[in-house]
Structure formats: C-alpha cells, structure tokens
Amino acid sequence: MNEFFKMLKKDHEEVKGILGKLKETKEKESSKREDLFQKLREELVPHMKAEESAFYPPLMEKKEAREDAMEGIEEHHVSELVLKELEKMPKDEDKWGAKVGVFKELVEHHIKDEESKLFKSAEKALDADEFKKIMKQFEQDKDKNKKKLK
Ligand SMILES: [Fe+2]
Q: Domains of the chain, with CATH numbers?
C-alpha cells in the first residue's frame, strides 16, 4: 500500500481506539472522560487540519477525486462542529454520552469513506511524485497544528 495511506490509516486506528474507550465511560467518570477527550482532540484535530491543508486541496483540482474530496471536507466540517459541542458540554451530563456515541459513528463513517472511496480516487488522480509532496506537507502541517493545539 501507498506510504501516505499507511500513515493516515495509522492515525485513523489511533482515533478509533480512543473513541472506543470514550464510548465506554460513564457520567461519574468525568475526569477520565476529560483525559480521553483531550487525547482524542490532540490526535484528531491536527490530523484533520493537515488533511484539509495538504491532501484535500490537490484532490479538489482533479476531476476523478473532486466529488469524494468535497464530501470528505463536509464531513470534517460536521465533525468539527460536534467536537466543539463536546468540548463545551460538562462531561458529567448524561447527554454527553449520547453525543459522543453519535460523534463516534460520524467519525467512523468518515474514516471508512476515506479509506475506501477517497483513497481509490486519489490513487487514480495522483502520481507518485504528487503523493510524495503531499505526504511531506501533511507531516509538516500535522506537526505545526499539534504545537498550536497545546
Ligand atoms: Fe479525514
């Protein structure tokens, strides 16, 4: 498999793991929720932002990938909105658990779309040199966003 896809998949696995743990938490474990939620943000936000700055724009230029990229961008947008709501809401509210469950489904759906549809159309649309450039940019942007988040 393409090195860049491997890198994205590794991030995706990490995010899915944290989401699975978060889903298991109860209202009375609000400090555990808080810790896991911060871990999730640190993983997810720099990853999404780096995809948005390094991966999606070149895909938007290619007719083979444009539609899938646009859908991905919208899914990121909705994910960011829900993530902000989860951040603001007290972690001991019972609604928080329901919201995080919906968020988990949303992110898992997005990951599945990316790994099946988007990766396939990206592979058709981009050559090895373009992938190399995108991967370098992605790593840089993710790193920058990670520092900004803290
Ligand atoms: Fe994504």
A: 3-149 (1.20.120.520)
